[in-house]
Design a protein that fits this description.
By secondary structure, the protein is mostly beta strands. The chain has five domains: 8-94, no CATH class; 113-224, Sandwich (Immunoglobulin-like), CATH 2.60.40.10; 227-306, Immunoglobulin-like (Sandwich), CATH 2.60.40.10; 308-389, Immunoglobulin-like, CATH 2.60.40; 392-475, Immunoglobulins (Immunoglobulin-like). 4% of the residues lie in helices and 45% in strands. The protein has three helices and 42 strands. Strands 18, 19, 22, 23, 24 and 25 form a six-stranded antiparallel β-sheet that branches. The two termini are 34 Å apart.
Amino acid sequence: MKRGAYIVIVFFAMICMALPVSAQKRSNLIMGSDKLVLLIDMRSSKTEVDTLLKKAGLKGANAAAILKGDFSALQKDGWTMAKKRGNIVEFDSPLENLNKNPQIKPYLITTKIDNDDEGSPGYPTDVNFGINNFAKVTVHELPSGLTRFFLPGYLQNRRALLSGNFNNWSTLKGVMAKTDSGWIADVKLKPGKYEYKFIVDGHWINDRYNNLVADHDDNSIYFRYNYTFKLNGNANAHKIILTGSFNNWDANSIIMEKSGGVWQKQMYLHDGTQAYRFLVDGKWITDPANSNKIQGDDGIINSILNLGETVIFKLDGYTDAKKVYVGGSFNNWERGLIPLTKTKTGWALSLIIPPGNYGYKFVVDDKWITDPANPRSMVEGGIVNSFISVKPNYTFKLSGFNNAKSVHLAGSFNNFDKFGYSMAFNGSEWTVSVRLKPGKQLYKFIVDDKWIIDPGNKLYEPNQYNSGNSVLWIE
């Protein structure tokens, strides 16, 4: 491999690392059983050091300064200089706060990664939570934020690909790099559930070391985590179990692990309001570190965790009202569960809601009303409700039609409802922002009750009415 081709960083398990530091020819990042070791060759180029710092997860360090002997940025980030031998400077950083998996055999990390395929959580299926189950861990989260898929063996084969719902099951993308112990591919994933397989010389195979397999197929399943439950103390406890609304209060499935005096469990947890509690040696307790609690239907007090986006609901006026609530499809239209707080000019509330599209209304002294400040609406069950999209990922725009009385959006994402989502006019175009799942979406605009395809989108396909539907692809 030529020096200028691309930067190569080699991860070794400390227990099997036999290369003396003096033999190093370039900068490296070495993963040990309890620490990361950063080796910087002061003869390296600025580009090489920049790449190394990125792999090590160092954001504030400056390669030029480091090559001049200024290591203050490294030390500020928690790295300690261990030794210096010739042109090689060695720094250590504890591994205890990283969710990394040291390998018995060395393997290569290159800067040639699949940047174009950013994954989509919960696609094709949506889940409340997920915990990985490997006989031997073959998927790793790297310090750089990338996710590494490792296929051990198959060294006699010529080509291996990684394919999954994160790259639309491509048979062209996801080319894996061959190492001395197998094949690797690095991808960028958001937290969520992913299905994947390997394609080795044209043959599809699943991950034989992954015990999680999809019910509808033999696809391997991987969860990228986004939350860690922690319980301090209880040093003498023998067994602690986590249970909650996300796993239907199963008191047997999620066993906490003790690490450094703290009981913890990492998992993927879906956005939303989650109730939970711990079972410590047969005794129920709430989370002492979480002051947000509520009494469950069984009379037991549960801790409450809110994950999602913060949405501010505001209703001006109605200062003479006694009670104002908000209800919508985000809480099954319960009318008296989410109260607003009275302000000088009306009522307001900050609420955490999972990303999605919702209808909602205010309940003013037991009377449902739409949001007078929101021009966008939708119809649910024949009833007009105010419309809100939480963390939208696409904005539909229709230019012109300045004299139209109403414009609505309908598509495969709302079953082509004839009312659809109402669009607002800003003086030059009609717009509405929505959250869409990845994949192909079909849509049309309804201008004063007349269905039209999007004049600003050249992509369309025929439909059963011979009028066509506009086509949109969401990555």
